[in-house]
Amino acid sequence: MVVKLYNGIINYIEKLTRGVLNHQNISYIIFGVLTTAVDWTVFKSFRYMGFGKTYATVISQVSAVLFAYITNRLIVFKSDNKGIVAVIREFFNFIAARLFTSILNIVGMYIFSERLTFNENIVKVALSIAVIILNYILSKIFVFKKRGERDINETEKLV
């Protein structure tokens, strides 16, 4: 029932955007919003329970990244990796990509907001958009490559 409803919504959005957005793009956006909701909900819950900001942030970030990995793996990119080694490699690639974009976000905020004194809100929005796009690209080409794409890339490395 839920899957039918979800697919119906995705199909409607695809038609509405006249094919500019596809199932994968729309799913990525939806689960990105839900990942943000997980982050905020966990953060606020831990703050409500009396935990400090840093602790609540760490727990909320870990929760959000785990949620993002699971939903990106199963729903957005429909990973076909099987076996514990392949899944662990995929997970660590996901974490590495997210750490990379987090570092870019931090460095970008420092350079543009602190050093060049651009408006922090404009910088934050611009960096957020850049990070979302970069996370999608890295997930698509680096983390959740389809089996055929992986085999071709690994064969090319051998030649």
What does this molecule look like?
This protein is globular. The chain has 159 residues and is mainly α. It contains 6 helices and no strands. The protein folds into 2 domains: 78 residues, no CATH class; 68 residues, no CATH class. The C terminus is likely disordered. α2 runs antiparallel to α3 and α4 runs antiparallel to α5.
What does the secondary structure layout of this molecule look like, with pairings?
Blueprint: H1 2-16, H2 23-48, H3 53-76, H4 84-115, H5 120-143, H6 147-158
Helix pairs in contact: 2-3, 4-5
State the gist of this model.
This protein has 159 residues and is an all-alpha fold. The protein is 84% helix and 0% strand.
- The separation of the N and C termini measures 48 Å
Helix fraction?
A: over 70%
What string, H for helix and E for strand, traces the elements in order?
HHHHHH
How many individual domains? 2
Q: What is the CA-atom radius of gyration, in angstroms?
A: 18 Å
Share in β-strands:
under 5%
What is the β-strand count?
0
Give start-end ranges of low-pLDDT stretches.
Answer: 151-159
Give the biggest beta sheet: none
Dominant shape: globular
Helix tally?
6
Structural class: mainly alpha
Mean pLDDT: 88
Key structural traits:
159 residues; mainly alpha; disordered C terminus; 6 helices; 2 domains; globular; 84% helix
